[in-house]
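Minutes, structural biology subgroup

Action item carried over from last meeting: produce the C-alpha cell record for MarR family winged helix-turn-helix transcriptional regulator (Shinella pollutisoli). EB confirmed the sequence was re-checked against the source entry. Recorded below for completeness.
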Amino acid sequence: MGKKNKDGKKGKKKSREASNGAGLASAVINAARSMRTVLSRNLLATGLYAGQDGVILALAEADGLTAGALAARLGVKAPTMTRTIGRLEAQGFVERRPDGDDGRLTVVHLTEAGRASLDAIAEAGRTSERQAAEGLSEKDVRTLLKLLRAMDENLHANLPDGPRNGGKAVADEI
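Output recorded by EB:
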C-alpha cells in the first residue's frame, strides 16, 4: 500500500533510480540500436548499409570533403571512415579525386548514383522516425527531443575538451 503524500493522496514515491539516472544508459543505447536496425532495414532498397547514409548526407551538404573531415563531422575515427568510403566507392555512390588546391590530399565527391540516393535516404529516415514515434503524441516527441539534446549537451560538457563547440565527439572517447 502506498504512503499518502502531503495532499493526503496515495501515490508512488519517485524511485531513486529515476533521480540518479540508473538504467538511462542502457535504455538510450537500446533505443539507438533499435532505431539504427530499423533504419538499416529501411535503407536496404537503396543498397546502402548502416552508417553509409550519413556519409552521403554529409557530402550532399558539402561535397568534396577529405576522409578526415567526414570522420570529424560524423564523429567516427578516420580508419572507420576510410573503410566506409572504400565500400561506397565500390558501390558507385562516391568517388575520390585529388584535391585541386593540395595535391597531397584526396577529396570525396558524390557520384550521380550518390545524389540519386538522397530522396530514398530521406524517405527511409522519415519511415524510421514514424515507426519510432508510433503511439507518442507530438508533445511527447518534442519533449523526448528536448531531453535527448540536453543529455547530449551534458555528456559533451563533461568531456576533457569541454563543450561540444570545441570538444571531441563522445564516440571518440570510447
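Discussion: The longest strand covers residues 94-98.
Next step: EB to file the record with the rest of the batch.
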